[in-house]
Amino acid sequence: MKTLHCLLLIMICLTLGSCVQSKQIEKLSVVTSRGTDQLENSEIETTLMIFQFTKPEGIVINPVFGKGKTIKGALANANLESRFELVAGKIQLELYGMELAKKGIFPYLDTLNRDARLPDSMYLAISVPTAKEVLTTKEQSISNNVGEHIHGLIKENAKDHFLPRVTLQTFLSKYYDIGVDPALPIIEIKDSIPKIRSIAILRDDKLVGEIESNYLLLFKILEETVRNEKFELLLPMKPFEKYLKNYTDTTKSTDKLNIALGLVKSKVDTSLIDNKNNVFQTDLWLDVNLLELSEPVDLNNDKSLKLLEKEINKKIEADAKGVLARIQKMNGDTFGYGKIYRTHQKNGKLTDELWHEIYPTIKVNFNVKTTITRHGSVD
Amino acid sequence: MRKRTRPTKQGNSVLPIAINELEQLLQDNFPNNPDLTFSIYHHHGKIMAVFYISYMVENDKIENYILDQSLKMKTDWSTQTLLNEIPLSSGKTNTSIDDVLYGLLLGKVFLYVEQEKEIIEYVLLNKDKRSLEKAETESLVLGPKIAFTESLITNLNIIRWRIRSTDLVLEEIIVGKKISREVRLIYMKSVANEKDVNTMRQRLKDLDVDEIEDSAVLSQYIEDSSFNLFPQFDTTELPDRFSYAITKGKVGLLVENSPSGLVAPATIFSFLESTEDLYMRWQAGSFLRLIRFLAMFFSIVVTPAYVAVITYHYEIIPTQLLLSIGESRAAVPFPPLLEALLLEFMIELLREAGARLPTKVGQTMGIVGGIVIGQAAVQAGITSNILIIVVAMSALASFTSPSYLLGTTVRLIRFPLIFLSGILGFFGLMFGICFLIIHLLRLTSIGTPYLAPLYPLSLQDFNNVFYRLPFSLENKRAKFNIPKELVRYSKKEAKKKQDIDE
Amino acid sequence: MEINSNIKAHLQFPAFYLFFIMFGVQTGVGIMGAPKYIFIEAKQDSWVAILLAYILLIIIVSVMLLILKQYEDADIFGIQVDIFGKWIGKLFGTIYILYFFVNLLSILLNYIEVIKVYLFPTISSFILGLLFIILIAYCVLGGIRTIVGMIFFFVILTQWILFLLYDPISRMDWSHFSPMFQASFPEILQGTKATTYSISGFELLFILYPFIQNKDKIKLPLFLGLGYTIFNLLLVTVISIGYFSPVDLADLDWPTLSLFKNVSYSFIERLDNIIIFEWIMVILPNLVLLMWGMTYGMKRIYNVSQKSTLYIASIMVLILIIFIQHDKQVTMITDTIAQFGFWLLFVYPLFLLPIVLIKKKWRRQREDEKN
Q1: Residue ranges of the Spore germination GerAC-like C-terminal domain (chain A) (predicted)?
Q2: How many Cα neighbours within 13 Å face the side chain of B44?
Q3: B442, B437, B445, B418: which is closest to B429 by C-alpha?
Q4: How does residue B155 score in pLDDT terms, banded at 50, 70 and 90?
Q5: DSSP H or E stretch at residue B430
Q6: What is the spatial distance between Cα A272 and Cα A281, in angstroms, rounded to a whole number?
Q7: Could you read off the pLDDT of C132-145 as tens digits, one per residue?
Q8: Cα-based angle C286, C288, C293 (whole degrees, multiple of 5)
Q9: Do C261 and A176 touch (CB under 8 A)?
């Protein structure tokens, strides 16, 4: 019995050595971000930012390029350039060139979904003009790796604030779902530093337009509950003039009131109120702290505070209406009104085509309720 | 006074016998033995022989109490009168010549008056022993620091003083056919589980060996299963730990000439218990015990996990950490498996060398090995410094075990696990851990499951095994030992509270 | 052969462990893919299908208990011989044993498939199979006491996986569930049928029953154990439906494992890599108890020593693992055993019960006549 055990163990040892492919980290080129661009001849070019561990330089970061018809083909092509095996298990960022995004990025996502070794938590973004240019920008001030920098940029923003989630999983989920379309950040090079330029509105996987980055927060609060965020608003000065503190020099006053608010918590709820005419109502509750006022408005007065809240409501409602009108024109349902529409249909059935016919005609009533809970240590 | 259980052979008694014949008989049985003192005295026409091995007995006592007293006697010598006149309490008569021969080796003095039917014996043994010292292998911060010595008498003395109760039983069992040795089976009559006591007694009595070298050897002879990694008896040199186990209903063994006592039934958790947990406040006691459990797990798993991750699963390392590990690995020419085995081997060398060397040199050794060699190895590019941290931490964790035996086992287990992780990654590691758990489940210690009270589950016993509650809440002994008396003291009394301002 | 199995007292275990045994033996590879199969049939109303499965499970297990209670201390092998006579009874017992064997094989093959797809595409199936067989054999050799202990430990040691589910829960989209109650009743029944593979295993109660110490307290741990299995299945399915979009979920092979792909912490990332291996602990209770059931059954029916069955079955499993390499074959075996399991586990007891009751009545009448 014992000898049998020993024999078995020896057999295992002998056979094992060769059968599992090892991935020792020092013999890998770890891909951290990948840019994909369209080439003229239906081929794609990928730019891979990789880490290599070498002696005596330590960590070496450099881009590798590969061309091919598929992502995996391009990876194999890039491998010809690299000393070690390229592995994508730690990939954090996928960048797509503008050209590619206009044609649709889904064909290049399939492998990401199919390959179980790739993480679901990678971020997706669109870059202007090409991914290659963004990733290979030479800038000393960005610590070491542009990919890492952009990842940090999106992560910092996507975790609790600003950007809607842009991971692979959320993208795919929105892509497959009927009645909601994904949105991605657009990255551009400004003064040779990558920066979020705007929000890309997609219809399914194709880029159809963009919205300026100052509406980022609006996108976020219309999608989910947001906590602990800061934003500023520009309100008209007119209604507040009578509440100005008496020591102010009224002659100097402007017609704009700049305020900075700290968002404590936001809550959003959308419902279909008129099934026939497709009228939706979006209620938005905002719980804010007042952080900054450009003019000395007397807040010790209940009325002035109420007025301020009302003006904020008005402003946000107007913003939301404006943005919605624009993305309705682009026909990308970023806010997911289709999902709500679908749940009110018989059998919950809705085709993508049908929804995109209805979508530009829907009406949404925005109803914002702001509460200023605190206004700092001065009135 | 010790009671001999050896059967005396009454049948072939050679007594009465002439003195010179007796001398001849002894000479024949101890050939070439210059140490046997055989002196003959005459008194009132009677002849008496006094014989003993000189360095085994206290010579002053023989002179002062036996020879002086008997030679001054007014009456005639006979067995009865001698027993009466000599002022020593341990006098006894014996008729078997075999017992006499054996008795010489136990430090007895024999008196024989010619033509009497019995030999008188006195126990006047003179045993050289070291004095009581502080425990070396199991050190404590709080609590009694005295350790067992090689002398069984001294050890019994300590135990009796610690457990002053008529309940305490110290059964004598002689083990060893060729060179016999005294073993004491120690338990509390009213507490200890009878099945355990019987099993232990049976195993000791059934033991058919020529000799036992030490209590550790005895434990290997009588354990439940020899083909396993884990110790099945708790070995301790601390009387307080020993007596604590006895009072809680376990069975103890003390072996002559061995400074460590055995306690059974042992569970894997009992090796991680220290009496110090009792001496601490209960919060600190629980915390330290928890730390020890974690340390054991950590010590077993951390190096294999490192090897598995570096060799196969780079994905699970966060990017920042991956960078620093990759950087330190870049210079190392070996695969992680070899690297880890090399370092573990080095640590084991250091430990072994430190244990063999005298204490003072041993300390220097540790510093030289730990700091100088470690530093040099990293600079020479033989190992990565992350691995040095990992290996050092796992070695450190393995030393937190209060039982040296368990610590050794834990260190031993690491090697197959490292090997498995090196060839199969996490699959190998999981395989190893599963195997280990099944292995532990199959073990028993004198019939008690080794993983009690986890399996069979006994939630009530978790107290005192995994944590320690204040004494007002722990009024029971461990249930899985099946003690005769479960309750230690009344809970009502312990919990009696006073009102405010009373 | 004896109808009653006369288990020695020291081999029996308290009914309390039945909770862990039921959960441990039901949860295995099935739950890895179950959300997909249930969802394909019952869509967003899958949760109704699973709750229905629980009701079905309670009925079937109650029927099993009723059958077992007609006898003093018998297991299914003894009962079948008593009911159908020596030849047919033994044949039915053999069918059970064969079912255990193929089920064991399908679990192993499925798990090996997962390892190959997720992590080691080039690893040899034989090696993985060999390591599993070593664990199974080592555990079965320890006897029923070790097996129950192993299940108890491994069930507890795998519970932490549930805590990781909070991450996918936080990413769920609840609109995937509405509008509710759209699936027709046949669709829901199809969904219920799709759960059978992932809740099979309770049939071992038929064999374990004589080993239980306090049979009067059997009900609570038994039904709680079944309930906990269903709870887990329900949890995983509901999260999968919310987390993946419908089109995606119908395509994914092992949605349960994919749920963990996003779980990352600052000190450790990609926990799915660890969970795949933690799954060894989830499937070992299945494998070991099935293997034990086989050896014990062979001993009861043909009086073959448990050790020889163990060794022969192990070698046969290893040989089959070498030959079955394609995922198509694995799927085919799994589908077949799931189909067969449905009839054997869910339908057969319902037929057995009336026969057992009639036979008992008939026997009592005859005894009355005699007297």
Answers
A1: 199-376
A2: 10
A3: B418
A4: very high
A5: helix B426-442
A6: 6
A7: 999 999 999 999 99
A8: 95
A9: no
Q: For chain A, which residues make up each domain, given as ranges?
A: 26-214, 225-374
Print the domain residue range for C357: 9-370
Task: Give the CATH number, domain containing residue C219.
Answer: 1.20.1740.10
Give this prediction's pTM: 0.89
Query: How far lies B167's CA from each of B214, B247, B483, in Å?
Result: 27, 10, 14
Question: Which contacts of C309-313 are long-range, i.e. CB under 8 A and separated by 24 or more positions?
Answer: C310/C137, C310/C140, C310/C141, C311/C137, C313/C101
CB C222 within 8 Å of CB C18: yes
pLDDT tens, residue by residue, B17-28: 888 888 888 888
Cα dihedral C90→C92→C94→C97 (10° resolution):
-140
Q: Which two tokens stand for residue C59?
A: 């009925």
Residue B16: is the preceding peptide bond cis (ω within 30°)? yes
Sheet containing B168-175: give its strands across: B168-175, B181-188, B251-255, B261-264, B234-236
A261 by DSSP, 3-state: which? Answer: strand
Residue C1 covered by a domain = no
Instruction: Measure the CA–CA gap between B365 and B200, rounded to whole angstroms.
Output: 42
Task: Confirm whether C68 is domain-assigned.
Answer: yes
The pLDDT, as a whole number, for residue A15 is 59
The rounded distance, in Å, linking the Cα atoms of B299 and B306 is 12
How close is the nearest chain B Cα to the Cα of C334, in Å? 23
β-bridge partners, A211: A199
- At residue A363, φ and ψ (nearest 5 deg) are -120, 140
Question: Tokens 């609790």 appear where?
Answer: A160
Is there a contact between A13 and B423 if contact means CB atoms under 8 Å apart?
Answer: yes
Query: Which DSSP symbol is given to A165?
Result: P
Integer Cα distance of A280 and A278 in angstroms: 6
Confidence of residue C25 (pLDDT cuts 50, 70, 90): very high
CB spacing of A90 vs B425 below 8 angstroms: no
- Collapsing DSSP to helix, strand or coil, B488 comes out as coil
At residue C298 the predicted structure's pLDDT band, cuts being 50, 70 and 90, is very high
Q: Would the CB atoms of A58 and B327 count as touching at under 8 Å?
A: yes
Q: How confident is the model at residue B8 (pLDDT cuts 50, 70, 90)?
A: very low
Distance CA A213, CA A9 (A): 62
All partners of chain B with 3 or more CB pairs under 8 angstroms = A, C
Distance CA B491, CA B496 (A): 8
Most distant CA atoms of chain C, gap in Å: 79
What pLDDT was estimated at residue B115? 81
In this structure, what token pair is assigned to residue B33? 């033995």
> Which of A326, A220, A313, A210 has the alpha carbon at shortest distance from A265?
A220
Distance, C-alpha C2 to centroid of its chain: 27
Q: Is C198 a domain residue? A: yes
Residue among C360, C349, C313, C368 at smallest CA distance from C60: C349
Say what the pLDDT of residue B494 is: 62
Q: Where are the beta strands (DSSP E) in chain A?
A: 28-38, 44-54, 58-68, 85-87, 93-97, 123-128, 183-190, 193-203, 206-212, 227-236, 256-274, 279-293, 363-374
How much is the average pLDDT of B190-205?
90
Chains that touch C (3 or more CB pairs under 8 A): A, B
From B188, B190, B158, select the one nearest B171 (Cα to Cα). B188
Secondary-structure class of domain A225-374 per CATH: alpha beta
Q: Nearest chain C Cα to B441, which residue?
A: C146
| Distance set, CA B382 to CA A22, B343, B364, B371 (Å) | 20, 10, 23, 15
C280–B454: do the CB atoms touch at under 8 Å? no
Overall size of chain B counted in residues: 502
How many angstroms away from the CA of C60 is the closest CA of chain A?
33
Total domains present in chain C: 1
